[in-house]
Protein 1
Amino acid sequence: MKTKSAKPKPRRHAPVRVAVIGAGAIGADHLMNFQRHPSAQIVAIAETDPARARAAAETFNVPEIAADWRALPGRDGIDAVSIALPNHLHAEVALAMLRAGKHVLLDKPMATNARDAARLVAEARARGLVLMVGQNNRFLPEVQTARRLIDAGALGDVYHAKTAWMRRAGIPRIGSWFTQKKFAGGGCAYDIGVHALDRCLYLMDEFAAAAVSGQTYAQFGPRGEGDGAWGKSEIDPSRPFDVDDLCVALIKLKSGRTVLLEASWAAHQAEPDVNGTQVFGAKAGLSLPPLKLFKNSKTGYTTELVNTSCGAPGDNRMTHFVDCVLGRAEPFVKPEESLAVQKILDAIYASAASGREIRLK
Ligand SMILES: NC(=O)c1ccc[n+]([C@@H]2O[C@H](COP(=O)([O-])OP(=O)(O)OC[C@H]3O[C@@H](n4cnc5c(N)ncnc54)[C@H](O)[C@@H]3O)[C@@H](O)[C@H]2O)c1
């Protein structure tokens, strides 16, 4: 598919007129956060479920409901869209919106394969539009403070990291689109592994991988066990569970540094939810959350709890996106970074399927 060349669109003056596409579980979070921005105006909701659409429009005082996202690209009076749809629709909808000149906030994962993700990056760049994947973990005070400490040299040379999001019983409802490959693209790696990976690569300030070895498992979902309560879409119990509920990967970055990634929707483990990152440097190491610094030396071992209460932006990907559209900020999550994350996720699945290490260009 060729990218049309187009003049960069000047960014908007306030208000930024936003349409939210998908009013399911996370769509409500999109709506709530756009409502918080004094220069954002939510002008439409696109949602196929009429009752869900009506309820969201009433709660957030939205004047227009579209019964499907396809009604929006040709419509004037919309500057930006926020996409909270099942994964298989991300790339298609985002591409249509970018081609129609709309700025796009896209929930994770960016797409269901790196080829589609690359198309989005090219289209947004060619048109001068904001395209940002809503990696909310990056906005956390612990992550922000940790990145500042690493940039300031507190860890010395960083050479390795471990990052994980391991749930004990948190499959986002067996029988929903989340547990079917044709709608979700992948299982826990795409759903929560993406957060752990993105957060870790952001801390290391390196996104390009040289090689990936991965393995995936499905021990709980196929037996109907490990169910969680997330998501609003319909359930069809007859749908086969054909995605991963645990994944593990060793990622070698271009610099030679390494990342160990673990993600699970369901596992026999003590804690209900383990979601954190450890970064290892030559001078010190850190872990989060909570943010702690560790030093191991001839004179002994020290551990320090770091205060993260100052100067961090908080979980505000929607308000930040509006600021980007207004030209007040540059996207904090760059589309090229999300493309690199997508390439690694694809490589994990390719490695699991082939039993080999996947080398990336
Ligand atoms: N950033 C995060 O922390 C986070 C958390 C949860 C989910 N997500 C992501 O957000 C996306 C949505 O997840 P969810 O949990 O809200 O799922 P959900 O199933 O609760 O909601 C999806 C909504 O999309 C609607 N929809 C489906 N097809 C449509 C179409 N053609 N036009 C308009 N609406 C349509 C459904 O009716 C449903 O209401 C997923 O990609 C998921 O990975 C991100």
Protein 2
Amino acid sequence: MDDGFLSRRGMVRAVIGSATMGIPLGCSQQTAGRKTLDLPLRTPAVEPTIKVRLLDLPTSVLKVGDSSTITRFGGKPFAGPLTISYTKENKGSTWKLLRGSQVLTEQQGGTLDLSSPSDFLINGTQFPTNSLSLRHQEGMIEVVGAFGLETYLPGVLQRELYSQWHPNTYRALAVAARSFALVRMKDRRGKFWHVRASAQDQAFVGGEIRTVATEAVLKTRGQVLTWNNQILCAYYSSCCGGRPARASDRWMSPANAVPPLSGQGRPCPCQKSSRYRWFSEVSGRKLGGEVGLGSIRSIKPIQTNPWGRTVQFQLRDNKGVTKNLPSSTLREKLRAAGADVYSGWVLRCENEAGSLKLTGAGFGHGVGLCQFGSEARAQSGLTWRKILSLGYPGAKIAFNWGP
Ligand SMILES: [Zn+2]
């Protein structure tokens, strides 16, 4: 999810997402007048399959398998560690399967489907999938794995939460992440992939998964958040800075203007995050250049949400010209100007000889479940259901595809 707090840490980079962070996705579901869950048709007892964009490879080489595995390429089985390459020439493109430098077989153009009787080892990391699809897209190779939804979710929790955190934090996030995934699956039905394995959708890793993550998914199996009989697009982020954001202030979609995505007035106990308050600085001249003004002298809050979180700021330059920006845009502009900021909620801005000293709050968009706040609530004895009710006020918990 947007700026999940592990996304900047130097841990295993088995999954490479796009470099662009914090894209406002929004969800396209409609909320009015529906009486039943508006979900993809499926047999209730059958676990849905989610297509996850695992890798964007800048090079045209992918390593799959090891000495004990079989890879099916073009329907034929090949044993051992193999390499997939993609070459584009004037007459067309070619996928090749190689062992060392020996070409075993080829396929002309199109997308490439690989399967295996066992879990795939991809560039040295094992993923719980035996079906991969590859395509060439805008100079990159997209590697997409097909996962059972419940098999996918532990890899999300593994990447999004700290290892020592409380089981109830894991369970709350399992339900939120499942809900978010199902909405994205519906929004992108029929597409080459449903979600990216990055903070743009949900962070995700393969490899060894800790027990608390797998147990949290198992204990909440099939359960989702709903509002008005639809699955909620359950956004979450690392730290809200003490006051939640409203989804509708950030993503202009009718589905986002609903009570469960609007936060609630009680303060969120996420002070243990190192980004609960953050400090940064930026050149007023550079920031002005990013927003089409002269050198910025001040950034002032001009509008807050009902919980006291600023949603609109006014920037003023050295000639007194002003420009109003929503917090998410301010965050982008600050980053573009070279500031190391973690949210768009600036609490204070002091101008010292052309340099703006910033104090801000939170990490991520602040909508929905706050991960650090959830952990504090779990530590204080709250159940995962109660944690969800505070993160998504008014939402119900229901079984989606059958217990
Ligand atoms: Zn919080």
